[in-house]
Each structure stands twice: as structure tokens, then as C-alpha cells.
Amino acid sequence: MDLFAPRHVLIILVVLFMTTVCGAIYFAPTIVAFARNHKNKIPILLTNFFFGWSVIGWIICLIWSVASQKPDVIVISPSQPQSSSSQPPPQR
């Protein structure tokens, strides 16, 4: 039996192609999360890896990866101007 016969090579190529396609579909939520630079991309990856085999886990990961991200809000309040005198502030 010749492993490199044209028929066997074709079967090997089809199996490799299908494995790649199935892997891309399985990890689609993770790919989306990394492409969007989601702040929870590592938890999405882990959840997808461990629970993606169930349809519900995969759907939850996909929804999580495409959910809108609210940016972290940083509030900067203006500081009170300091007086030019070298007197300490009044004690309360």
C-alpha cells in the first residue's frame, strides 16, 4: 500500500482541510474576540475551549465575543488652584 498514491494524498488533504475548517468554526468566538481586542478575550478562549463542544456554550461565547464593550471611564476632576501664599490650609 503506497501512502503517497494520488488517492491517499487527496484523502489526507481533504481531512486536513476539514479539520482546519471545523477548528475555525469551533474557535470562531475566540477568533472574533481576539480580532476585536475584547477585554475578556482570555476568559472567552478558556470558556470556548472547555464548553464550546456544547452548542449552548458555543453560542454563549459567540454572544459574549460580539457584545459591545463599554470603554473604561476615567474621570479627571480639576484640582483646586493652590494659593500663592506659603500659609498652611486652615485646620478644621
Question: How would you characterize the overall build of this protein?
Answer:
- The protein has helices at 6-26, 28-35, 41-51, 55-66.
- The radius of gyration is 27 Å and the shape is rod-shaped.
- With 92 residues, the chain is mostly helical.
- 57% of the residues lie in helices and 0% in strands.
- The protein has a domain at 6-66.
- The chain starts with 5 loop residues before the first helix and ends in a 26-residue tail after the last helix.
Can you give keywords for this protein?
92 residues, rod-shaped, mainly alpha
Q: How many strand elements? A: 0
Terminal CA distance reads 95 Å
**What gyration radius follows from the Cα positions, in whole Å?**
27 Å
Which range best describes the helical content: under 10%, 10-25%, 25-40%, 40-55%, 55-70% or over 70%?
Answer: 55-70%
Please state the structural category. mainly alpha
Main β-sheet: number of strands, strand sense, barrel status?
none
Instruction: Encode the helix/strand succession as letters.
Output: HHHH
State mean pLDDT (0 to 100 scale): 88
**Helical element count?**
4
Tell me which oligomeric state these chains represent: single chain
Low-confidence stretches: none
Per the principal axes of the C-alpha atoms, what is the gross shape? rod-shaped
